[in-house]
Structure formats: structure tokens, C-alpha cells
Amino acid sequence: MDYILEGFVEAIQLILSFDPEIYQIVSLSLFVSFTSTAVSTLIGVPAGIFLGIHQFRGKKWVSRLLYTFMSFPPVIIGLFTALLLSRSGPFGQYKLMYTSTAMIIAQTLLVTPIITGVIFNYTSGNGQIIVETGKTLGAKGFSLLLLIVTELRATIMIALVTGFGRAISEVGAVMIVGGNIKGYTRVMTTFIAMNNNMGEYSLSIAMGLILMTISFITNSILYKFVIGDLDELKN
Amino acid sequence: MNLKINQIKKIYGEKTVLSIQQENLVFRNGQINGIIGPNGSGKSTLMRIIADLTTATSGTIFYDNSPLDDDLRKLLTYASQQAFMLSKTVEENIRYPLKLRNYSKVDQQRIAAEQLETFQLEAIRTQKAKNLSGGEAQKTALARALSFSPKLLLLDEPTASIDPQSIKIIESALLKRKVDPSLNTIIITHNLSQAFRICDTLTFIHQGNILFTGLPDDLMHDPNPIIKEFISFN
Ligand SMILES: Nc1ncnc2c1ncn2[C@@H]1O[C@H](COP(=O)(O)OP(=O)(O)OP(=O)(O)O)[C@@H](O)[C@H]1O
Ligand SMILES: [Mg+2]
């Protein structure tokens, strides 16, 4: 049991020592997951709103498909991305395999359905009344979209934080398409998995603590800005 | 300007919910036109079609001899049976249509103040509109709908959950607006005595058909047994 306690002590020493490698890994993780969440937001928010507020044939199928994609294991997404990006794959010419770009692509594929799904789910029930109210008061086109986004701000925040949480904590996809290359594609989760395999528990624990702190901070932001302002969820 | 309804029909799936046979059902300007009829008879459906929230299966609507299009629809507003408040304050809700129409800040403020006074909402001016009671929300929705002085005002049961004193306030606000001869007000109500108090014309809808349209007094003497029965319950 001692090694756990030792691990924690060493971990804290490690964090306080400001080891440049650790901070490089953390910043790469944040960069990859922020970027993929941002790209997913640009796709997922409009897509979720569009699919949610429109009535069309096959809407049930769209939602079933979305929910399936939302729960796809990261390894499968990683595998799929790898097939696309590998040298003999359709996008092989761009030589993206084992780069941070590949990790961003994989995480974007992972997160976009989550953000789309959360927004879709909410707007399917509550989007129509927002659109109708806006229309009867004179909003249309861009002003209508702006109104919808403003009214959905809490839901959008929840979608973002959920998506980011999924991206920063997944290991399967980044491992496959990034390859955990030291100083290049190594991120927090692949670092933890690797050190755990090598019996370097204190390093794993140190990184685990950092990862948990980041989750805690993002969730606190969510609570501060959203849960206190849950207006839209009252309807 | 006058609103002319021409053989509007609405079918949901297999069910015909609205089937107006009249080629020339006119709602005149400078009047308050009431629509009455039992639950599910198609009153809201008709209003939603006029407001372009639902598309008619067939038929046309004219506003002063031109087909009602998006440009003309800018002049109308529809206050729904279920008032939906934007997640803003009461005052911001009232100012929202003005903001959309690029009114100056000063005008927005002035008009909002007038509306708040008219509907006696000053005390809750800065309150979040999502937290309002049903009646407060309905009054705010009305103040919001009237803020930009629409030329065609579609009101779907605007006093359904409102206390008697506030009903008086709303009715007199509507009557006051009638001085504008170009304003056309159409109001759905289940309150027949209210219909008689404020409406210049009444239209009776039953199972999607219009059984009567004309002066309120004439409705009372209409021989149609369905209308007779409807009146007897009020
Ligand atoms: N989206 C819809 N899909 C299917 N049927 C609908 C839809 N909207 C309305 N209906 C049906 O159309 C009929 C007319 O509804 P409408 O809301 O116009 O009635 P109403 O006269 O306003 O009734 P109320 O007095 O209860 O408000 C009802 O039978 C309703 O079930
Ligand atoms: Mg109705």
C-alpha cells in the first residue's frame, strides 16, 4: 500500500518541480482538445439547431444515428481516422498520421456528435417555440439565429463542456492516430497509460492529478456560468 | 388595410382541421374582430396560418389586395396562447422587437416605459421574464407584441389567465389603439361577454368551418342550432 502514498508524494513534488516535459504534455493536450472542441462547436451547434428545429422525414433515424455516434468508443474512432489518414488511405498523401493534426481530427470526429446530439436533443423539444416567438416579433435570418443561440446559451455551454471533457479524457483515439511520440504527440492520457504500464506510478498519479484538476476547473466554469443561469432549462 | 381570407384549408395527416368555404372573409381595419368557437375548432390554426407559423394546405390570404408575403408580415404580430418569454428581463423582452427594427436607444426606452405603464408592469421591470407568473407573462407578451405598433395584431386568448382588473386594463389598451384606423386587431376569446364588450365583428368557427361572421348582435339572433347552443352555455 505504501507505493500509493509514495506515488502521491512524488507526484506532488513532480508537479511543483515544473518539469518542462510535463508542462509540454499538458499544453499539447489542452491545445488538441480545445481545438477539436472548437471545430466541433462550429459544426455541431448549427447542425444540432438545424436538425432540432426542423420537422422532416427520418428525423427519428437521425436521432438514433446521433445517439449511436455519441457513444462510439474512442478506439473505434481512432481506428477509423487511422484508416483514412494512413499512407495507403484516401488522405494518405497529406502525411498526417502520428501528428497532432491527426489527433485533432480524431477528437473532432469523437466530439462533434456529442455537441450536435446535446443541442439536437434540447432544440427538438424547445427550439420550435423560440423560433416562433422570434418570427412573430420580427426576427429572421441572422437575427433569428442569434436569438436561438442566445436562448440556448446554457445548453451550448453544457454541450461544450461535455464535449471537451470527453476529448481531454479519451485515450484510445489519440493513442492510435498520435502514437504517443515523446515531445511530439504525447498527451496526458497516453502518458498515464504508458507510465502505468512501465510501473512508474508516481508519474501516472501526477498526471492523473493534473487531469482531474483540469476537469474540475472546466466543470466549475460550467457551474458558475450556467447552473446559476439556468433560465432556458425552466421552460 | 384589410385582411382577406380566401378558402383556407388545413389538413394534418388525414384530418381536416380547417376548411373555410368563404372566398372573401374580410377582417377590416380600424376594428377589433373577434373569433370564437369551441376547443379544437381551428381558431389558433387560422391565426398561425396568417402569421406564417403553419402553412395552409390550400387557399390564399390577401392584405389589402396583395397576397400576404414576408414583407407585409413584418407589419403583423401574433401573441400566442402560450406566452414564451425570452431569457431577458421584462423590459428587455418588450424592447426586443424595437431592437430588431433598429429603433434608437432613446425611442426604445420611451416606448418600453409607456408599455410598462399601460400594462402596469413597472414593478417587475427588471425581473427575469422566465420567472414571471402566467398572467404576468401574458401581459408582458402583450406589451411586447404591441411595442412596435403592428398594423395587424393577432391575439390568441390574450386574457385567458388574467385577473379581472388586469383584463380591464388590457381591454382598454386595445380599445385605445383602435383610434388608429389602419390597425387591424383579431382576437380569439372564449369569453363571450368580453367579445361583446370589445369586438366590432364576430366570427364563429366550428369544426374548421365558419358558421357565422358579422355583427355581434346578429350572432345572438342567428338561427343555426350549433350557434344557439354555444351561446346558451356562455
Ligand atoms: N401540429 C398539429 N398536428 C396535428 N393536429 C394538430 C396540430 N395542430 C393542431 N392540430 C389539431 O387541429 C385542431 C384545431 O386546433 P386549434 O389549435 O386550431 O384549435 P383551437 O380552436 O385554437 O382550440 P382551443 O380553443 O382549444 O385553443 C385540433 O383538433 C388539433 O388537435
Ligand atoms: Mg387555440
Descriptive report:
- Chain A is mostly helical.
- Chain A has a single domain (27-227), classed as MetI-like fold (Orthogonal Bundle), CATH 1.10.3720.
- Chain A has helices at 2-16, 20-53, 59-70, 74-85, 100-137, 142-151, 153-169, 172-178, 188-197, 201-225.
- In chain A, helix 5 packs across helix 8 (172-178).
- The termini of chain A are far apart.
- With 234 residues, chain B is of the alpha/beta class.
- Chain B contains nine helices and eleven strands.
- Chain B has helices at residues 43-50, 70-73, 90-100, 105-118, 134-146, 164-177, 192-198, 216-220, 225-232; strands at residues 3-12, 15-19, 25-27, 32-36, 58-63, 66-67, 76-79, 152-156, 184-188, 201-206, 209-214.
- Chain B has a six-stranded mixed sheet, sandwiched between helices. In chain B, strands 1, 2, 3, 5 and 6 form a five-stranded antiparallel sheet that branches.
- In chain B, a hairpin with a 2-residue loop joins strand 1 and strand 2 (15-19).
- In chain B, helix 3 (90-100) crosses helix 4.
- The radius of gyration of chain B is 18 Å and the shape is globular.
- Chain B starts with a strand and ends with a helix.
- Classes of the chains: A mainly alpha (235), B alpha/beta (234).
- The complex binds adenosine-5'-triphosphate and magnesium ion.
- Magnesium ion binds at residues 43-44, 81, 156 of chain B.
List keywords for this structure.
heterodimer, A: 235 residues, mainly alpha, MetI-like fold, 10 helices, globular, B: 234 residues, alpha/beta, 6-stranded mixed beta sheet, 9 helices, binds adenosine-5'-triphosphate, binds magnesium ion
Number of helices of chain B: 9
Order of helices and strands of chain A: HHHHHHHHHH
Return the domain count of chain A.
1
Query: What class, by secondary structure content of chain B?
Result: alpha/beta
Tally the helices of chain A: 10
Task: Write down the secondary-structure element order of chain B.
Answer: EEEEHEEHEHHHEHEHEEHH
How much strand content do the residues of chain B show? Answer: 15-25%
Taking pLDDT < 50 over at least 5 consecutive residues as the criterion, the unreliable ranges of chain A are: none
The tally of beta strands of chain A, per DSSP, is 0
The CATH H-level homologous superfamily of chain A? MetI-like
Distance between the termini of chain A: 51 Å
Helix content of chain B: 25-40%
What is the percentage of strand-forming residues of chain A?
Answer: under 5%
Level-2 CATH architecture of chain A: Orthogonal Bundle
Q: Look up the CATH topology of chain A.
A: MetI-like fold
* CATH class bucket of chain A: Mainly Alpha
How would you characterize the largest beta sheet of chain A? Answer: none
Helicity range of the residues of chain A?
over 70%
Structural class of chain A: mainly alpha
What does the radius of gyration of chain A come to? 20 Å
Largest interface: A-B, 19 and 23 residues
